């Protein structure tokens, strides 16, 4: 079953919003699905400019992806990285691809604590899309999302600690974050954890497991 990214994003937050805003976002989704991207943009932009994090995140995705939309070959992907690995099918009448504009909208949503957008912004800083590449800034946003329990962010933090990018290299913390991501089913996280463990002592592994357990207990 093919799903539009916008449909997935908007569905995440409609239930918790005021009826008027939720209705506007439903209208934007309907316009987008009908191929009326200009109308979707017309509805979304003022909501985003008023500070709605979900609208800001959706605009960020529209500018990140560029014209039209991409169809994802998974039934219900919940991983930004998994989505990025899939093939894009671009169709016109959307907005021009603009990483800097995407980063601007992502930041507005991320600063409001929108975890999935914090992951997106971390990704852009990691690779220098629309912003200057900055591993420390990437870690900042990944950590904020990871502390909210976002599994992709936890896996990304594991990578940063494993490679010493934006943080001092630390196998114990890499193992901890990979372990937490693996417990939530992130693809490849268990293998990454085990790869790190092969370079650790038993005491270090025990410490990493203890840290992961303590984190999970504190964030039920």
In short:
By secondary structure, the chain is mostly helical.
- In whole angstroms, the N-to-C terminal distance is 32 Å
Radius of gyration: 18 Å
The figure for the number of domains is 2
Order of helices and strands: EHHHHEHHHHHHHH
Q: Which stretches are poorly predicted, pLDDT < 50 over at least 5 residues?
A: 1-17, 68-93
Average pLDDT reading = 81
Fraction of residues in β-strands: under 5%
Number of helices: 12
* Order of neighbouring strands in the sheet with most strands: 1-2
Portion of residues in helices? 55-70%
- Overall shape: it is elongated
Give a count of the beta strands, DSSP E runs of length 2 or more: 2
- Please state the structural category: mainly alpha
Please give the largest β-sheet. Answer: 2 strands, antiparallel
Describe the structure.
- This protein has helices at residues 5-13, 19-33, 37-49, 53-65, 80-85, 99-110, 115-127, 135-146, 151-163, 171-183, 189-197, 202-218; strands at residues 3-4, 71-72.
- The chain is mainly alpha-helical.
- The protein has two domains: 1-133, no CATH class; 134-220, no CATH class.
- Strands 1-2 form a two-stranded antiparallel ribbon.
- It starts with a strand and ends with a helix.
Features:
two-stranded antiparallel sheet; 12 helices; about 220 residues; elongated; mainly alpha; single chain; disordered N terminus; about 65% helix
Q: What's the arrangement of secondary structure elements?
A:
Elements: E1 3-4, H1 5-13, H2 19-33, H3 37-49, H4 53-65, E2 71-72, H5 80-85, H6 99-110, H7 115-127, H8 135-146, H9 151-163, H10 171-183, H11 189-197, H12 202-218
Antiparallel strand pairs: 1-2
Helix pairs in contact: 1-2, 1-4, 2-3, 3-4, 4-6, 6-7, 7-8, 8-9, 9-10, 10-11, 10-12
